[in-house]
Amino acid sequence: MYGAAKEQYRTILREIEQAGLYKRERALTTPQDAHIATAAGPSLNFCANNYLGLADDPRVVAAARDALDAWGFGMASVRFICGTQTQHQALERRLAEFLGTDDAILFSSCFDANGGVFEALFDADDAIISDELNHASLIDGIRLCKAARYRYRNADLADLAAQLEAAAGARRKVIVTDGVFSMDGTYAPLDGICELADAHGALVLVDESHAVGFVGATGAGTPELFGVADRVDLRTGTLGKALGGASGGYVAAHAEIVDLLRQRARPYLFSNSVAPMVVAGSLAALEIATESPDARARLAANTALFRTLMTEAGFDVNPPSAVGPHPITPIMFPGEDGAIRATRIADRMLADGVYVIAFSFPVVPRGKARIRVQLSAAHSEEDIRRCVAAFVAARDAVG
Fold this sequence. Notes:
It contains 15 helices and 15 strands. The chain has helices spanning 2-18, 58-71, 79-82, 86-99, 110-121, 136-143, 157-166, 190-200, 222-225, 255-264, 266-270, 276-290, 293-312, 338-351, 381-398; strands at 35-38, 41-45, 103-107, 127-131, 148-152, 173-178, 180-181, 186-187, 202-207, 234-238, 249-253, 328-334, 354-355, 358-359, 368-374. A 7-stranded mixed beta sheet has the order 3-11-10-9-6-4-5, sandwiched between helices. The chain has a 3-stranded mixed beta sheet with strand order 1-2-13. The mean pLDDT is 96.
């Protein structure tokens, strides 16, 4: 039975490889950190979402280790049956307090949070107005619900206003956007979005995965950065990036919304609870993040230094948003041969002990290939200068 399908799948895989889009995973032989090792040897890591350097922080590891003894390995159940520990509730309360919302609800991942929020809250009488560059999890979650769908050009407030006008007859309208667009390292203009939401009677949902823990004065994310924390109705986010880097996601929102998600969000109702050690480690990471202005300052300084050095070296650095740069720093390789050049440079850099990854179509638009560099508070100035030197050497070698 599998014979014909096997050849069809092989053909698809060959086409992916011939197009230069085949993704080969590089296995680490060490914990996640700014300094790692692969089979090729030791490397500086410049492509992890480990923004605050907490993925291998001894305090986070110790909290997770202690939780194994205190709380066990796994829950073996969903939340409403017998999958809730008091520490799950404690983490939800702490997230809500940190973000300034009524309540919060944990999911196995932010992908699951985004996959469950729309179907539970919106139906055929409603309208969803979504930024064209939103994360795949938002796109997939929106597809699962029956609401009318409208899409606006990336961060384009004029087009957003036009789409809100087109959706004027809907019972409920919700504007959906990433707080930070992960391929570009740019911010959604949340102040303008909230103004339009108020004018058109719309809710606002922001995915904070690449912001929570380090963006804003206290690390509470893009709503804090733009001064609209009290005007964003729903925040989805992850515990798997700045806040420890393990797994788990959340929705933080008004009390009624969170309560309704507990009743109807399918990934919450039908997926195992977040593992006890992940909950404990994430709680520790959240406390460290809230008490670490020095780490946020170090991350900002590292980002600024890298951008300056790469620009001086003649690289095409994606420009930052008006509110400033994000630690995601794409180095652009435009044109028809950009994907090949980016891949060759990334491979050469790995051989020189600097781990970066090239991105090309379909992850980014054709002709806009890039190497997406991600800075961390765990990087030293020496690490950053070595990374820039590796870029220059690889460019000289590859052409």
